[in-house]
Write the structure tokens for this entry.
Amino acid sequence: MVDKVYIDNPGALKIDLMLRGIRLDGALEGHGLFKGRAGNGVDIILPNDALVNVPCGDEYTLASPYLLHSSGKHYTITAPKDGRGVPVKVVKPPSFYSEYTTTGKAFSDIATLHGSYSAITPKPVCELFNENAECRYCAGGFDKVDANPVIYTVDEVLETAEAILKEGTSDIIYLSMGYSDCDDGGIEFLAPYIVAIKKHFRCLVAVEALPPKSNKWIDETYGLGADSVLYNLELFDKELFETICPGLAKTIGRNRYIEALKYAATLFPNGTVASHLIVGLEPPGSTRQGIDMLTSMGVVPILPIYRPQPGRALRIEPLTTEIIIPVYRHLYKAVKENEINMLWVRDISVVTTPSEGRALIGEESKGLTSLYEQFYKTKLGAKTAWGLSTLRRKLRVKDTKGLVDSSKN
Amino acid sequence: MGVKIDRRPIWLLLALKGLRTFFFIAIFAAFLYVVWMPLPDGLTPEGKNAIAIFLLCLVFWVSNIIPLAVTSILAMVLVPLLGVMPRDVVYGLFGNEAVFFILGAFILAGAVMHSGLSNRIALAIMERSGNSPKGLLLRIYLLAAILSCFMSEHAVAAMLFPIVFEIAKGLELRPGKSGYGKLLFLSLAWGCIIGGIATFLGGARVPLAVGILKETTGATIGFFEYSVAVMPIAVIMLAIGYFVLTRSFKCEITSVAKAHAVLEKRIHAMGKVTYNEYAVGAVLILTIIAWIIWGHSRGLATIALFSVVVLFILKLVRWKDIEEYVNWGIILMYGGAIILGTALEQSGAAYWLADRLVGGWITGPLLAVAFFSFLTLLFTIGISNAAVIAILLPVAIGLTSSFGMNPTVVAYAIAVPAGLAFCLPMSTPANAIIVASNYISVRDMAKIGIIMSLCAWIVFNLVARYYWPLVGIQF
Ligand code: SF4
């Protein structure tokens, strides 16, 4: 059963690859493109243009039924036991990964490209690690507990954003934040970065932070220029949330996550408020309940698949693609039923997006939907999204004193 | 944190934004239509253009769609551009005495406030009010009125507001519910409004009216002469105001003993009277005496500016301190209004307009005073009082010339009621300030404000009819 492969269905193949990873053909071992990919994976474009970040080099991937071959510049994924294969493209790491800021910091340390978006963490520190209360699955590299943590300056982040946008693949910059003991969920710290990026570039900015104590900070987040916001609940099951995310459960609490998401969904444009629910950390039924609750509030659930790490085997076993596919189908249906815009959360290499779930129920995007999807992938589409988002903010935000003003100095 | 989110539907927000653009296009189209339309009988081309500019400014002043000062700048630009008056004359009018008097008055008031003198006087007077609620009310009312005779009523309201607010809190009055709370804040606003009409210093309206009057007719009104004419109106209105106030809301407390603790704390925090306070007080008193004695011969602005120089020679203020108190927007607004008024008068447009609008049925001075004072009181409910003067005075002066009426009278008939705005928060900053306290609602204010406006109209006309001839103001 475990050896069932999905070579013919790109939607299911994406999930299966994310879950089980890929092995490399002998000829590719040691190839520059794949060196040191353990923990990071390799970005591959499947036949339906779906981008997927496939684990490769990690121990558990050695059992994967999939093998990546190359002949010249062409790549194929095959399932040796099954004998079939599909042509794929391997995405080269962006060229800015090998470049540095003027202060000598590697861009690859500051930002990570995930397809249509790039994530920047100006302060890669999470205070929960200090108290041994971190989320047990956390693999964000936030554990560098240090008296003088690295904090990238606004200028360094701006240089990085410029390099990302020049590369041309990402048009959304995600600014993320670990836990810090404050009422604002980290937005006060991120404010100068958001404002500076908005001031210098015509790109969309998403903020991945922690729910602030009061909704005023959510208003502030929108007013500052964030086009999207993510408060990642990660687990819907209350008890598992408390066990796996003890720090967040104690300091913020599940209820506040839900309240903040609900409020943000009334403020931000449709489809731009999202929350992660990690598939594999709780029973699928619980994830489905989470999907229902989030979508009923207008929040887009983003479902990353848990990738086990040494010493952190939290996965609900057995986790197979057969178990996961119905969850993604449910995700697509719930998002569609609640009329949530699927254009924002798209082309992400590390998750199957709601719109990609469409392929799993055998539906195709047609007519206007397909036109919109194609349009927003173009440069003009990205500019239009930016323009509409900016216009909306101009109409909605009446008073921009406070944090916004501080940027004008 | 300072972000406010407008949650109305996006289509509505878009429509409102579009409406603004549409509004500007429509207004400028109408403006161009008036400029290009055939010349009406009895009007010069300059007069027609002056009317076009006047109508444009009228819409902008009334709608407040752009700041009042910017509308005035627009008038300054359009008058020479459309050939109504040469540009050297236009910009020369900006150097009008009224404009410099306002500047001097702002600086003097700024010095008084900066020194802390006004605050100390206010606290000292209130502190001596005893324990009777009505006594405290009367002190606040009269104090606001008296201070507004010497400095801008807006500044007085802003200065006394925090003190009254603390008193209300000290007395544990419930915002929106307490009758005495409403009385305290209304007495503050009404005192400022009524006191503000008594002298040239209460607001910059009177100097503006005098500026327009002087540029268009050559006539003027002196500092002392004005107060002699208007003081009875202020006194009668103060009495009526107190009567209306004390009957409109129930006073639910019997003692204001707790208020004294608040006042004492503030007085204590101020320390001893400083040299600066004495000196600024002396300069202010000498300035007022000089205005009364030499106002006519030397000019009010000259005296005001001389006092300003003295303040700096004596190092009583620094320019940095003063800049906070000088409202350059008002100064620009007044300069533009004077230019527009002069353009209407000199091009013959004011006379033509008045003749067409009301010439047929306003046949005598008394009717003119009754009509314009009523119109002013009506306009001033919703429009800035300076804008009301800028709109009505040139037209009214145009009318007076048709039946040989003294233009000074009509200047009074507009300048004085323009200050008597009791009804709404947008009528005058004093009202807006007290509504911000949450102790008084717009409804409460409007309900009794209408009664006060009506009384103001009757009192003004009675004083004009029976008292002014006694002090030499002939119709
Ligand atoms: S909040 Fe949890 S998931 Fe986020 S960085 Fe901290 S430990 Fe990791």
In short: Chain B touches chain A at residues 1-7, 10, 13-14, 17 (CB under 8 Å). Chain B has 22 helices and one strand. The longest strand of chain B covers residues 2-5. The CA atoms of residues 209 and 411 of chain B lie 6 Å apart.
